[in-house]
Write a structure and sequence with these properties.
By secondary structure, this protein is α/β, with parallel strands linked by helices. It contains three helices and three strands. Strands 2-1-3 form a three-stranded parallel beta sheet, with helices on one face. The longest helix is centred in the C-terminal third of the chain and has 17 residues.
Amino acid sequence: MIHILTACGAGVNSSHQIADALESEMHNRGYEVQCDAVMIKDVTEEMVSHYDILAPIVTPDLGFEVRIPVVECGPILYRIPAMAQPVYDKMEETIKSLNKK
């Protein structure tokens, strides 16, 4: 199981849309992922330490070094395949790099 943390400004819309889209697309590609959605202001170093990948709308300055891969997922929200596909491909590449079953 791959654990992904999604984050947006309010933690109630965009991050949930990204989480749902990632879970669906990665499942279709054969990966078992679980995404949690939060407000970007609530992301802490301790919280991030429990995840494999951070998937924010854009890469934020959290005030600490993020020690897990970060994949910007904002283009998923446009629901335009040409924009979302590269993000899904980057996510899959990142998942593969984890070497985690």
